[in-house]
Every structure is written in structure tokens, then in C-alpha cells.
Design brief:
The structure is a single chain. The protein is mostly helical. The chain has six helices and no strands. Helix 1 packs antiparallel against helix 2 and helix 2 runs antiparallel to helix 3. About 30% of the residues are buried.
Amino acid sequence: MEPTNPPRPYAIPVLIGFLAVSLGVGFLGSLFSAPEISGWYASLAKPPLNPPNWIFAPVWTAIYILTAVATWIVWKTRLSDCRKTGLRIFWVQLGLNLLWSWTFFSRHQIFTAFVDLVVLWVAVLLMARSFRKMSIPAASLLVPYLLWVAFAGYLNFAIWRMN
């Protein structure tokens, strides 16, 4: 049984806040990527497993939602150093996520973006490990994020090598 704080009357507004922040990062990232999709990105050689462009937005949206819910679950647990660490990593991974979009799409720095993805993957793994100490369901919600960032790393690395 996971120890939690007593019910908080403001839990739902906090969930909405985590969702807004997470989805907001996705929206900001799209401001970097959308203008480049039909031009620069379309001109790049891509690996065989590269999915169609339309798949990225719904997958990232689902990941942002799952991450926000996982973070909210952890936020509701008892106050601890582990919880503080997990919540800090949440903010760090959001920054790394946004940095990737800017580095890859706006700066066209494909290898630097790959390095950012590696660091992002490590941050998500550390967040999942931290969350797991407080809530196995919260940590489980981060598995798709880990898998997608690993796949994005494959795509990013292959695009770098091919171009």
C-alpha cells in the first residue's frame, strides 16, 4: 500500500496544471518543428522505420498526458526527498524535451539533438525509477515515454548518419 497525503481539495486543479504544462511544452515544441516539416525535414534522408509525419503529434500528445498524470500521482504521495527529486526531474525532462525540438528543427543540429535525446532518455529513466519508489502505476505510465524516446533516438541517429 502506497502512503499518501490526505485527500487535497485542490488535487484536480494541480492535475490540470501538470497537463497544461506538459501539453504546453508540446505546443512550444511544435512551434519549432511545424515550419520545418515540409521544407528542411522533408529534404532529409530517413531510415526505413521512419513513421509518417502525422503519427508524431498524437504519440507525443499521449506521452505528455501520461507523464502529467504520472507526475500528479507522485505529487499526491507523502512528502519525501524521493518525491522532491522525482518532481525536479519532471521539470528537467520537460526542458530537455523542448530543447530537442529547438536543436533539431530550428538549429538543424542533428547530432547535438541526438545527444540531447540520450540525456532526455536518462532523465526519463531516472524519473521512472524515482516515481517507482512512490507509485508503481506512476512509473508504469512512463514506459511508453522511455520506449518512444529510444525510438526517436534511433531515428535521430540514423538521420544524422544518413545526412
